[in-house]
Amino acid sequence: MIKIWGRNTSSNVQKAMWAVGELRLEHTRIDVGGAFGKNKEPAYLAMNPNGLVPTLEEEDGFLLWESNSIVRYLAGKHDKNGVLEPKDAKQRALASQWMDWQLSVVGPAITPAFWGLIRTPAEKRDAAAIKASQDKTAAANALVYMGLTPGTPLRDLVIDTVFLGSCTNGRIEDLRAAAEIIKGRTKAPNTRFLVVPGSARVRLQAEAEGLDKVFLDFGAEWRNAGCSMCLGMNPDQLRPQERSASTSNRNFEGRQGKGGRTHLVSPLVAAATAIRGTLSSLDDLDNAPSALV
C-alpha cells in the first residue's frame, strides 16, 4: 500500500492525494508537519532530508519527495489511459509546465495572502502585505492569460480583430476620426476590422457623410448599430488566444469570447492598428493626419 506522509491541510500534500484518488490507488496518509510536528525528527528526515511534506513511501521501500515529482511518478506508473499523463510528449510537457509554474510563480505570489488571511488572526494581519500579495498574484495570472511577458513591446503584438464601436467609442466623432486616418490606405491583410456605430442615429449620420464608404473601401465590415464584439455577441467573438484591439470599455477574461485577449484602445489607435496589423499609434504611421497627431 502507498503511504503519503503529510498533513491534509498542505496544498502540496493535497496534490499527491488528488493523484492517488484520481488513479484509484490503495493508500493511507500519515499526519506529519504543521501542528502535528514529526517532520524534523530523525526518522522522517531519513526519508526526506528537507523535512517538508509530502513524502511518498511504497511497500518496497521506495521513497520520493517533492509534490510535482510524486504526481508525475504516480501518473507515469499507474495511468494507463493517458488521463493524468498524456501519451503525447508535447501535451505531457505542457502539463508539467503548468505544474511547475504554480510552484515557481503563483505559489510564492499568493502565499503571503493565504497566510495573512487564513492563518493569521484578524488583529495581527498585515493589510499592506496581503494587498501586495493579491496584486502580484493577479498580475501573474493576467500575464499568462494575455500571453505576455514583462517587457514585451506592445508594437510587436499581432492583432487578429480590430473593433471600432460600443456606446463608449462608437460616436460620430469617433467614426470621423478613424475614417480620416484610414482614408486612401489599405487594411492589414490578416486583420479583421469591425465598425459598429454606437446607435442607429450615429449610423445614419455616418452614412449621410459617406463614412461607411470610406470604411468599406478600406476593407472593414460596416455593421448596424448594436453590441457586437463589445460583449462577444453571436459570431462576433474571438477564438481562444486571439487578440483584439477594441474601443469598448471592458476587457475581463472571456468578455469578447472564451480565451480571447482584449486590448482596450482609442478610436485613433484602433484605426492605426487596422492599417499595420499590430498594436499601433499614429506615431507608427507615415503621413498621419497632422490635426489628429
| Percent strand | 5-15%
End-to-end C-alpha gap: 72 Å
Please provide the ordered H/E string of secondary-structure elements.
EHEHEEHHHEHHEHHEEEH
Looking at this structure, what is the CATH superfamily of the largest domain?
Aconitase, domain 3
Q: What's the CATH class of the largest domain, please?
A: Alpha Beta
CATH topology of the largest domain: Aconitase, domain 3
DSSP strand tally:
9
- Give the overall silhouette: elongated
Number of domains: 3
Give unreliable regions as ranges: none
Percent helix among the residues?
A: 40-55%
Number of helices: 10
Structure keywords:
293 residues, 3 domains, 5-stranded parallel β-sheet, Glutathione S-transferase Yfyf (Class Pi), Chain A, domain 2, alpha/beta, 10 helices, Aconitase, domain 3, elongated
Give me a quick take on this structure:
The protein is of the alpha/beta class. 42% of the residues lie in helices and 12% in strands.
Tell me what the structure shows.
Strand 1 (2-5), helix 1 (11-22) and strand 2 form a beta-alpha-beta unit. With 293 residues, this protein is α/β, with parallel strands linked by helices. The model has no long low-confidence stretch (mean pLDDT 92). It has helices at residues 11-22, 42-47, 67-78, 89-118, 127-146, 166-169, 172-182, 200-208, 211-218, 267-276; strands at 2-5, 27-30, 55-57, 63-65, 161-165, 192-196, 221-222, 243-246, 261-264. A 5-stranded parallel sheet has the order 7-6-5-8-9. Strands 2-1-3-4 form a 4-stranded mixed sheet, covered by helices on one side. Helix 7 (172-182) packs across helix 9 and helix 7 packs parallel to helix 10.
